[in-house]
Structures are given as structure tokens and as C-alpha cells.
Amino acid sequence: MKLKRLREFSQNVYNQMRTAKDAVFELMDAAILTLRPSCLAELSLSYVFRREWDSAYEALSDCRPHWLNLLKLFILEIPPIIQPILVADHSPYSLPDAVTLTEKTYEYQASSVSVNPPVGVG
Q1: How many CA atoms lie within 13 A of 50 on its CB side?
Q2: What is the mean pLDDT of the chain?
Q3: Taking 60 as the threshold, does the pLDDT of residue 34 lie above it?
Q4: Which of 3, 12, 50, 54 is deepest in the core (most CB within 10 A)?
Q5: Which superkingdom (predicted)?
Q6: How far are the Cα atoms of 18, 41, 115 from residue 109, in angstroms, in the given order?
Q7: Gap between the Cα atoms of 94 and 120, Å rounded
């Protein structure tokens, strides 16, 4: 994302907040800069959050953004997909006790184990 576009996006998100805009943005900066935060209070200890720790909770309860407008902004930032990615689960784990169709069959499953034949219930 180019810097100008990032600034425009940030300003548009900022405009969708009703109150406590600056505190919420400082919390977002703290979330980006804090390595594995375990709680909200930890984010309030970040050097970019310039308020008292209880202001973090107040900011989140007071900001009340326009969610639908925010969602539209986020969707606009998703790049168009030229070719869709299709995902399917073909895990090699047999689940013989799983509730399945009545047409359950034994299927060959590629395996590097030579002791047992690589056949599982599928």
C-alpha cells in the first residue's frame, strides 16, 4: 500500500469513529507494536498509548464506529482475485467412528508407513 493511500484509508477509518478517535487509534498502534499482547491493559502500557490504562477500556466502549461504513472501507481494500482459490480437505486421517454417509468406503491413502497398508475408511 502506498503511503498516500494508507493515509487516506487511515483518515477514512478515523472519520467513521464517533468519539474517542485518538485513543482508539493509539490502541491500534499499540496492538501493532506490542509483541503478543495478552490483555488490553498490556496495550495501554505501550509508549504510543499516551493515556492512563483505564482510558483503553473507555475508548473501546465510547468509540461506537459506523460498522457498515467501516466494512465497506475494508472491502474496498481487498484486491480483486483474478483466479479463485478453491480449498478442499483431503486429510490422511481416517475417522472410522465419524458419522458419515451410508456409502462409506475404504479408500487408498498415500502413506510412507510400510507396516500397515495405506487404506482408511472414507
Answers
A1: 4
A2: 80
A3: yes
A4: 12
A5: Bacteria
A6: 56, 49, 14
A7: 5
28 φ, ψ to 5°? -65, -40
Whole-angstrom distance, CA of residue 108 vs CA of residue 63: 55
Cell, residue 40: 488490553
Over the stretch 36-72, which tens digit does the pLDDT of each residue have? Answer: 888 888 998 998 999 888 888 888 888 888 889 999 9
Answer yes or no: are the C-beta atoms of 48 and 33 closer than 8 Å. Answer: yes
Q: Could you state, in order of their start, the residue ranges of all structural domains in the chain?
A: 3-77, 90-122
The C-alpha cell that represents 19 in the structure block: 468519539
Amino acid at 13: V
